[in-house]
Amino acid sequence: MKLNELGLLVVISGPSGVGKGTIRKALFKIPDNNFCYSVSMTTRKPRENEVDGVDYFFVSKEEFVRRIEENKFLEYAEFVGEYYGTPVDYIEKNLDAGKEVIMEIEVQGALKVRERKPEAVFIFIVPPSKQALLDRLMNRGTEKTVDIQRRIEKAEREYHLAYKYDYIVVNDDVANAADRIYAIIRAEHAKTERSIHKYYKLMEGKTNE
Asked: The domain spanning residue 54 has which CATH number?
């Protein structure tokens, strides 16, 4: 009998450029993991090589709006005329199956998720220094200097929201950061509040429940 049968919703968040996506990919490479990526839903058209249900769930605007009215999203936003959101039913299905659902999301979206899912584990990713963040954004080579400066200013505002998270992980090395998050997940499963009821049943010999 396992003490924990439900999975955890793990929210990896932080300012743009801190390496959230890179850390998430490294996390999924850890052997024998039970992770499931939280696939978002969008109304934009699929790009080349994107697969429905893997990269995104692609739906019409009418379908998306219907889901909004039915409160089917943990969070959603509109960007450049298209909707993006996190479908709650997909997450619940995988949590019930005992999987660790990993969500990679920007800061404002994470705070919206916290309102709906306060029991989730929220991890704030930070760079080892302000200069390191600047270097990462510059090395992308995809944005103008003025846009990079705006991202830096936005990041500085978002750093002050770190207190709303459960953990802070410094991305000084991608593999180390992924290992720290994996350790956090294992520790969270061992918390008394998550396992005490199953423990009592185990001690009472109710192993079939």
From this structure: 3.30.63.10
